[in-house]
Amino acid sequence: MIDHYTWSGGAEAMLRFGPDQGPVVVAAMPLLEEANRTRAFVVTMLRRLAQLGIACALPDVPGQGESLVPLETLSILQMQEAFAAGVAHVAANRSCYALSVRSGALLDALSPLSGRWHLAPQDGPDLLRELARIKGIKPSNAEPTDLWWFADGTDWTEDADPPVEIAGNLISTDLLTELTARSRLAHAEDSDTPVRVVRLEGDPRPADAHFAGMPLWRCAEPDNDRSLAALLADDIADWIHACEG
Amino acid sequence: MHPGNAGEVRETVRAVLRDVLGLGHRADAFDDATPLFGALPELDSMAVAGLLTELEDRLGILIEDDEVDGEMLESFGSLSRYAIDKSLK
User: Fold this and answer.
1) Could you identify which of A20, A56, A139, A177 might form a hypothetical disulfide with A146, taking C-beta atoms 3.0 to 4.6 angstroms apart as the criterion?
2) pTM
């Protein structure tokens, strides 16, 4: 069903699946274009979880999906606040777990959660490097000032820099500045919370498990992988059952 | 584990091209002479950004953007040679 939650900036839509009781999974989509490429895949995972008896929610974070809030007015902190409001909306008297995909792992840090499950998480500096590349900027590692390629070069105490257009998205310099320093879990309030990191085969970085599949977030056109979605949903369900004891 | 020899690096490059550009089994037939940039309509500037980032992730390398030019992306052979030099040096 389609539900709504409110945060300090207004009301946003939220898809809900599964039972009214028991643990609930709240999904955090990646920032920017990758959200479009992975939405059908994430919804497939959530439907599978609901079939397994686990409730799920997919809140539209401001600036994403059906949201009417212009992306260029938003910071990551506001998106984190909105995601936390979405969690609070569904979490009354039940344990709540984040299912965060890619840079969505940056958004769940302010939410009180019983666990965080991260698929191929991407930190802020890695996303910023990719955005620079898409924009055609060539940041040099030898020149630290190049890290601030998105600033207009005027005194920072004066008016805010104008938003930067990257691949059709207008993005605030506040958000880009936050990416220079944001890493997932960096501001997590409850550092004892269990975290499970899952990556695709071919990604050699540390993970609790690797699964075979295509990185849909890289594909030029939105696509789906139902068998991978089912495997990942089963992994989440097993992990939640273990966490719940 | 990062790819440990030239053959593994080459197959990683093939897998990245297949995944990022959605080439499916077409990538299986790529050889050194297969042209890439300018010949594959899927390989636009946005896809190049994703391709380079995914190569960095899977090979554990850092690609300086001033190393990226038409020559490097000219063919499957040239891209593979770059990746092999970078990751096995």
Assistant:
1) A139
2) 0.90
